[in-house]
Write a structure and sequence with these properties.
This protein has 704 residues and is an alpha+beta fold. The chain has eleven helices and 45 strands. Strands 8, 9, 10, 11, 13, 14, 16, 17, 21 and 22 form a ten-stranded antiparallel beta sheet that branches. Strands 6, 7, 12, 15, 18, 19 and 20 form a seven-stranded antiparallel beta sheet that branches. Strands 23-24-25-30-33-34-35 form a seven-stranded parallel beta sheet. A hairpin with a 2-residue loop joins strand 31 (458-461) and strand 32 (464-467). Helix 10 (555-564) runs parallel beside helix 11.
């Protein structure tokens, strides 16, 4: 046996007893997270990633990352694939390991960061330092590359497939092409999210990857001696210019390798995101029932001049009675002018928002508010309404600092605050603090409605033309981290043009994430079936009921969907009557049934809920497959579970047969059918038939 393989065998054996950890040899590293073991070696000046799927062979593997730079604006592009020297390896904190490399013929030092948390998913990012005396530019970057299966295995790739509004979560499977394949998204912020899943039907294994980066990227796949992948952050201009002595951290790739079924691969990624990505919720404020009230939706119950303080104060009584815990005043039409978020519309809210906030609190609910201080839209009239809002160009900040803004590249070129400017970033952070403090918010909802900006804006730095995206997102995330640190009880929710920022870098800085503006039947169920492949369901909020009446399911199905999808519930305002006098007893009873069920049966287990995809998305099916939606959610200890089944076609060819995946065969369960309220003993391994005469069904399973 070659000496290197013997070293790896010894190190792997030492790791086998640990849920997560790292072992370092001379020029080599072995990382373990859960059942995933990943090996690297510095070989001939290259950091080599050894195959994930089997014991490493000395002659296998490829470069663990790709990095190209320019040390002068007119100089050649340097490919830093080989030429590295191993300097040091260390553990920085629990689960966080680092390998220091130094380039021998260019002024670049590299720290390779690896985070293992026991979830069978590993997080990897690079820290790049300019050791020279002049700026250098990163021109190409793939923070993690790897190799795995034999090229002739039967392999499919799952990914999101639709770039444009509003097609979030449009997850589909297809065969991985020969000899090369790619997934490319280079239109700026997009409704196609940075994720791929490789499924090997020959070995029954899954590779699950999510890139923490909201802008342009490309995933490359190659079938040579083995299947290889590269995950690129892309730009036509320099990605980042690094000053002399400066260090920058790259976007991270989160990579999971699972031997087992699709549900296990999904659950491994969800648990990793919970452990190592999501910010902690403020105590007692997780997964609250919240009502969203914008003006600029056709189904909103208050439009134009009716969207006012007097009507909303009465409406709060209805929400409290229905079990709502947080009222969210959506925007932007509560304000008179973009960029002047401390000045509510004088005609609609003549006393400001103080009375509305106070009354919300008096009724025992929390108050949330929406704003767009990042720019992206400008003054306009709400579609189908008389509501108007003035533009950014009316504001003092724009008139005095127009250089802080860039024009959005679309048919509607609204100003966008360029956070790559340090002064603009400081102003933005101050605006966030001002909005939250001025109104005494319990939740701040952030929107940015300028997707699909291609390469975006650029700035000349050190002689290099640099894309502004990297610096913009560094500043955006830093602003929200600072806000969260100053207001530890504040809930943060993001709604970027619907759901464009649903990458893991964004998930790390907000507690809750809006899925989409499109909630029509059957689209919303197909979308959520896809989104929950790569995002934990409980951090998602979907305004169920926002669609026009002709595109909605029945009221009962809407309430089931609001509370039983394992999302943070967001019933849209039109599901409620305007006043208490209009709140019929049978409607109150239905709200009471589902809010109680959610708060007592479902919410207690959401923090670590196990998700099982039955239809339309599953191990082989994509969002457009089949006529039914079926998802199952279970407590981590499998003591309880529930399943929501919804008919997506008016007349499917037959009944849906549901067989639970989460139940422990050693235990007995009681199953309750929500349509009838009848409970029965249920044996693990049995199935339930849902006839086409039912639009939906909610099944509840509880250990006896």
């Amino acid at each position: 046996m070659p000496r290197f393989c013997l070293v790896l065998l010894v190190l792997s054996s030492a790791l086998a007893a640990d849920e997560a950890g790292a072992r370092f040899g001379k020029g080599s590293a072995v990382y373990r997270s859960g059942s995933m073991i990943y090996r690297e070696q510095l070989r001939d000046g290259r950091l080599v990633a050894l195959p994930l799927d089997s014991a490493a062979a000395q002659d296998s593997g490829g470069a663990a990352f790709q990095l190209r730079v320019r040390t002068a604006p007119s100089g050649p592009e340097l490919d830093l694939a080989g030429g590295w020297r191993w300097v040091h390896a260390q553990t920085l904190s629990a689960g966080h390991h680092a390998v220091d490399l130094e380039y021998q013929s260019a002024p670049v030092a590299l720290r390779v960061h690896t985070l293992v948390d026991g979830s069978s998913v590993i997080k990897r990012w690079l820290e790049i330092r300019n050791t020279g005396r002049a700026p250098l530019a990163i021109t190409a970057l793939a923070p993690w590359c790897g190799t795995l299966w034999r090229a002739n295995d039967s392999i499919s790739v799952g990914s999101t497939t639709r770039d444009h509004y509003p097609w979030e979560g449009w997850f589909e499977w297809r065969a991985l092409a020969w000899p090369r394949d790619e997934i490319r998204q280079e239109i700026g912020l997009s409704y196609r999210h940075p994720v791929f899943v490789l499924r090997n039907d020959s070995t029954k294994e899954f590779l699950f990857a999510e890139l923490g980066w909201p802008a342009n990227r490309r995933f490359d796949f190659e079938r040579g001696a083995r299947v290889g992948f590269r995950t690129w952050v892309t730009s036509k201009n320099a990605l980042r210019v690094i000053a002399a002595g400066e260090s920058v951290e790259t976007p991270a790739l989160h990579l999971g390798f699972t031997r087992g079924d699709f549900s296990l691969a999904v659950q491994n990624m969800h648990e990793h995101i919970r452990r190592s990505v999501l910010p902690a919720y403020p105590p007692q404020r997780a997964y609250l029932v919240q009502c969203l009230l914008p003006e600029d939706q056709s189904t909103t119950i208050f439009r134009g001049k009716e969207y006012n303080e007097s009507n909303l104060l009465k409406y709060l009584e209805v929400l409290r009675t229905a079990g709502v815990e947080l009222f969210l005043l959506d925007g932007p039409f509560w304000a008179a002018n973009y960029g002047e978020w401390l000045k509510p519309h004088p005609g609609l809210f003549p006393q400001g928002l103080a009375q509305l906030v106070r009354r919300t609190h008096d009724l025992g609910m929390l108050f949330g508010l929406y704003a767009e201080p990042e720019g992206g839209r400008d003054g306009f009239r709400s579609p189908g309404s008389t509501a108007t809002i003035g533009g950014w160009k009316n504001t003092r900040v724009y008139q005095e600092h127009s250089d802080w803004f860039v024009a959005g590249k679309s048919a509607y070129p609204a100003p966008v605050l360029n956070l790559a400017s340090a002064d603009a970033a400081a102003y933005f952070a101050g605006e966030l603090e001002g909005i939250v403090s001025h109104y005494g918010l319990d939740l701040y909802r952030h929107d940015f409605c300028m997707p699909e900006q291609g390469e975006g804006s650029v700035t000349l730095r050190g002689g290099f033309l640099e894309s502004d995206y990297w610096r913009h997102y560094d500043a955006l995330f830093a602003g929200f981290d600072r806000l969260r640190a100053r207001h530890p009880d504040l809930l943060l929710q993001q709604a970027s043009g619907g759901g464009t920022r649903l990458d893991l870098a964004s998930l790390a800085h907000w507690h809750e994430h809006f899925t989409s503006d499109r909630t029509s039947l059957p689209h919303v169920y197909r979308m959520l079936s896809g989104l929950t492949v790569y995002l934990p369901p409980e951090v998602l909020v979907t305004p169920m009921g926002m669609a026009d009446a002709k595109h909605r399911p029945s009221f009962r199905t809407l309430l089931r969907s609001t509370f039983a999808l394992a999302n943070t519930p967001m019933p849209f305002n039109s599901l409620f009557p305007r006043t208490l006098d209009e709140f019929r007893p049978e409607t109150r009873e239905m709200f009471a049934h589902y809010t109680t069920l959610y708060k007592q049966f479902m919410r207690p287990v959401l923090a670590h809920v196990k998700t099982y995809h039955h239809a339309p998305v599953n191990a082989t099916g994509g969002v457009t497959s089949g006529d039914w939606f079926a998802m199952e959610f279970a407590a981590a200890d499998r003591s309880r579970a529930w399943a929501l089944i919804v008919r997506l076609a008016p007349k499917p060819p037959g009944a849906y047969v549901f067989q639970p995946k989460s139940l422990d065969p050693r235990r007995g369960y009681r199953m309750t059918r929500d349509n009838t309220g009848k409970a029965e003993t249920f044996r693990s391994g049995a199935s339930v038939s849902i006839g086409i005469d039912h639009e939906s069904e909610l099944l509840l399973f509880e250990q006896r």
